[in-house]
Amino acid sequence: MDRAKHRVEARTRIRERIRTKVLGTAARPRLAVFKSLKHIYVQVIDDASGKTILAASTRDKDASAKGANAASAKAVGAAIAKKAKDKGITKVVFDRGGYLYHGNIKALADAARENGLEF
Fold first, then answer.
1. Distances (CA, A) of 47 to 5, 14, 70, 77
2. Which residues are bridge partners to 45 per DSSP?
């Protein structure tokens, strides 16, 4: 139990450090990622107004993939990019949420880039 608690606290510290540097605006919102053991969630956030503009996850009814694996991360990345393009958003800043840029996070980011988001 202590290891799990330590890992969560370490990710929280890293996440706070990232958030001091990464700020979303109306012109360039923040693409925030959260992953659990079962699902992957992504939000496009305007920090200036404190509002979530878009969201996508593996829990959505129209999600093509389920679970927290690389295939579903790619599907969520493509879905958020499509929704963002429909709203006229092409540039975002990427907030990896304290997770390593590896595996599912990298797959999500690459899929979002391939589908038209710039970051």
1. 29, 19, 28, 21
2. 30, 52
Please say whether the structural domain 2-114 has been given the CATH code 3.30.420.100.
yes
Of 106, 100, 98, give the one whose Cα is nearest residue 8. Answer: 98
Burial class (CB in 10 A: 0-12, 13-18, 19+), 3: exposed
So what's the pLDDT on residue 62?
85
Statement: residue 1 has pLDDT above 70: no
Beta-ladder partners of 30: 45, 93
The mean pLDDT value of the chain amounts to: 95
Q: Hey, what amino acid is at 6?
A: H
